[in-house]
Please model this.
Amino acid sequence: MEQTNLSTPALNARNIFTCRLSDNQVLLYAPLAGSAAIISEDEVSRLEDSAAKGDQDEDLATLSQRDADILEIAGPDTVSELSVLINQRCNFSCSYCYSANGRDNQELGKEQLRRILDWFIHADRGKELDIVFSGGGDPMLSFTGLQSGIDFAIRKAHGENIKLNIGIVTNGSTLSDKQMDFIKKHEIGLVVSFDILKEIQNAQRSHYDIVVGTIDRLIEKNIVSGIRSTITPLNVCRQEEMVEELHRRYPGIRSAAFETVLNPDLFSSPQDLEQFYMDFEAHLFAAQDLGRRYGITIGNTVINNVDSCKVRACLGKLVVTPDGTITACSRLSSAKEYYFNEFAYGKVDVDGTTFNREKYIRLMNENVNTDVACQSCIAKWHCSGGCLLARRSLSKEYFDCYCRFMRRMVVHALMNKLSES
Model:
């Protein structure tokens, strides 16, 4: 049976949500109270009636409690993570790349990078900050500038008594021993974008043998790294096989993230996309179960988000692109990309760092509170309105598939939590 939200407006107004699982089984979920249970439709009707009448009901009072915080939107001056897309250069031609239209030789200048790092790393922003270097292109192709920026950031953070977490996302094809030693010395979190299975990697990303050699060297040097795999129609039903391969071939890798592709051109119809999402859900949870047996954590953003309540999928983004533009989406790196200007709201240049704060507020105001459909959805505070770029790039029919997928994933994750407890 297709999971559906029941019509329970009085409960929804109290942040209590329902989802029909079978003919007489309903998942009742109060995310802000941290409570979930399987109950009958008759019990749902009783609770809805009590909520509508304002009755003093002990169960309703418990479900209406607010024990969980709702994470709010951060402004440019308070957001605690900086994403740096240091260049547009890449030696891969991935079939699903969202940055392909922006490819050129542009690179963020050392002074621009230092300027934004100097502005970002400040004790008033917080005692623990994150900086992630990713693409755009591949950051390791700009290692001289990257190294200079990281050295500066570490010195500045030390002077401000700030704990700084630095991450790099790379395709894993160009890392030298010197670069690996630098990463290890500074305990940089390294993520290699890699599709694990040889034929899939070569079909979607290429250079399998080179990347495998890099991962082997990282393991030999005891450098802790993770894998990020993009799941497409080619490998959606092979996620368990990917875990088996991780266990067999890369015993030093203990975590990987499996994320769905965001590219509507890969799907010929809404039905095609719907089936992809259903296959992804089934095989992802099976892959997670298998990973637990092997001591490998298989992560996914949608499932991770079930552990918190947020007013927006992205709680404010500070993303610096290779030309110094500041945007609200790390998937947009160039003005050549269709939605780039819509998400751009600032600039770092010789005059400093400037923002169009009104535009930033308009972008952030598109959140879980602005879509009527979100108000009755059991995934409301975890999906949080969904990815804004997905809303822009998917047609209504495709976005409806996306919404159903998010709800199914959240319900599946909640059911797993219930069974574990």
Observations:
- The radius of gyration is 23 Å.
- The chain has a mean pLDDT of 95.
- DSSP finds 16 helices and 17 strands in the chain.
- The first helix runs from residue 9 to 13.
